[in-house]
Amino acid sequence: MKLRRTWRRFADTFLSMRGDPKKIARALAIGAFISCFPILGTHTWLCVGAAMIFRLNLPSLVLGSWVGSNPLTIIPVMLGQYQLGRILLFKDPVTMPDELSAKALAALGRDFVLPLFVGWPVFGALLAILIYPAAKWTIVRFRDRRPPPNMEMVV
Q: What is the pLDDT of residue 152?
């Protein structure tokens, strides 16, 4: 039930945002692109910077940044970025070393990080391209079914 309540709050926040649906959807899509950035802990700061530079809706950006960086989606997103980067770089998959020493993990990290950084812009762009029309359609459809705020019902 807690997950359902959280989802409902997320949906209400997103659908109740004021402004042009195109601008809200654009900010959400850019936030989703930012969510794919592989350095964790930087997403909110990148959203604030993007909102200031490009005059975007900050709540939509932050909401979008949770698409790829929340606990449910971060592993599939990171693995997808890695696989895409690996394919673009023509690299073989990374195999786990038999011994987990610091030196072995450092060597593994180098082979994992480069494909991750090559794959994130492409993966993020694909995610943003998918999210923009879905978000715009959802906002427009929701607003068409809901009466405008502060309107009295005429009986």
A: 57
Q: Domains of the chain: which residue ranges?
A: 19-142
pTM comes to 0.79
Predicted confidence (pLDDT) per residue in 77-122, tens digit: 999 999 999 999 998 887 776 776 777 767 777 788 899 999 999 9
Residues of the chain falling short of pLDDT 50? 155
Q: Both tokens of residue 125? A: 């762009």
Three-state SS annotation for the chain: CHHHHHHHHHHHHHHCCCCCHHHHHHHHHHHHHHHCCCCCCCHHHHHHHHHHHHCCCHHHHHHHHCCCCCCCCHHHHHHHHHHHHHHHCCCCCCCCCCCCCHHHHHHHHHHHHHHHHHHHHHHHHHHHHHHHHHHHHHHHHHHHHCCCCCCCCCC
Residues in the chain: 155
Residue type, 32: A
